[in-house]
Design a protein that fits this description.
The protein has 319 residues and is mostly helical. It is 74% helix and 0% strand. It has one domain. Helix 8 runs antiparallel to helix 9.
Length: 319
């Protein structure tokens, strides 16, 4: 027993402090979110795949909290990404970090959720406009640059979908949900195409990394994701069976997370690179599930609001 304890201590000491903080914030929000889901009774009320959709805010929020800590542990690196024409680079790095952590807690506790989700959607959209698109414009043939821009757009779409779920006015809710659907669907189409072309790269979000040789199945997961993405994206683009399509897409991303990115996170646990790949993909899956939660049930014109019955929604405070 003492040998096991010694090994655990050695492993912990080998992990840099900035990585520990990211995992701590990620794990804390994950734990709080899980407890909240069951204490609120959401799990018992949900039926079928709606139980999976329940985890959308949690899978989105936990990575946001982890990334928020990086704005403190890697403040200089984060600040260097701020466009040169914007003043107070260090301030914005810390400010966004605080906002990310606060927003993550808001999403899982449903305190000012609509406001937090709206601000997150706006923040990620600003990342796309101010950093990712200009970076891609420097070399339009760089498929990884456009992949990153579309990833941020998807994150914006997920938060926008959650904001739509908590919007009372039906017309406004429909507009926000529709924009969110396109923000997520366009990247899915692009990702499907890229994964068909480059099966040796990591699946889910086809970033600039080869799938490690030690991953069981290797390239098969990238091709599997490409096959699953295509019909889901087409249905979302057409506006047909949108809830089912988004749920299927989210399930695919979570499967890829389990078979590829979770092992990478474990093997590379002492590196923020391993954490970021694992958390990025989980957040992407969460964004897709948030979209699923904002889509109407089949045969119903009413948009679901975070998978709660009407009487439970009416009990929520209006934000």
């Amino acid at each position: 027993m003492s040998l096991l304890n010694s090994a655990a201590v050695i492993v912990l000491l080998a992990i840099p402090s900035q990585v520990k903080w990211s995992y701590f914030a990620f794990g804390a929000v994950l734990a709080i979110g899980l407890v909240t889901i069951f204490l609120r009774g959401d799990w018992h009320r949900a039926r079928g795949f709606d139980k999976l959709i329940l985890f959308g805010p949690l899978f989105y929020a936990a990575p946001v909290a982890g990334f928020g800590t990086e704005h403190f542990t890697l403040a200089k690196n984060i600040a260097s990404m701020v466009p040169a024409w914007i003043p107070w680079h260090q301030f914005w790095a810390y400010f966004v970090g605080v906002c990310f952590i606060a927003a993550a807690l808001s999403l899982i506790t449903r305190i000012q959720t609509r406001l937090s989700a709206s601000l997150l959607a706006f923040t990620f959209f600003l990342f796309v406009v101010l950093m990712d698109v200009p970076g891609w414009a420097q070399d339009p043939r760089d498929r990884f640059a456009i992949t990153l821009a579309l990833r941020q757009l998807s994150f914006s779409g997920g938060a926008l979908a959650l904001a739509a779920s908590f919007t009372e006015r039906e017309r406004c809710k429909h507009i926000l949900a529709t924009i969110a659907r396109y923000f997520i669907t366009v990247p899915v189409l692009f990702y499907s195409f890229q994964q068909f072309r480059h099966g040796n790269y990591v699946p889910g979000i086809p970033l600039n990394r080869l799938t490690p040789e030690w991953i069981y199945g290797h390239a098969i997961w990238t091709y599997l994701a490409a096959v699953a993405y295509a019909p889901a994206a087409i249905l979302l683009l057409m506006g047909k069976k949108t809830r089912a399509a988004a749920t299927w897409l989210g399930l695919t991303v979570l499967f890829v997370e389990l078979v590829v990115y979770l092992p990478i996170g474990i093997v590379e646990r002492a590196s923020l690179v391993g954490f970021n790949y694992m958390a990025d993909t989980l957040m992407y899956g969460g964004a897709v599930l948030l979209l699923a939660g904002a889509m109407p049930h089949e045969g119903s014109s009413e948009t679901s609001t975070d998978q709660q019955p009407r009487e439970a929604r009416e009990a929520l405070p209006t934000h």
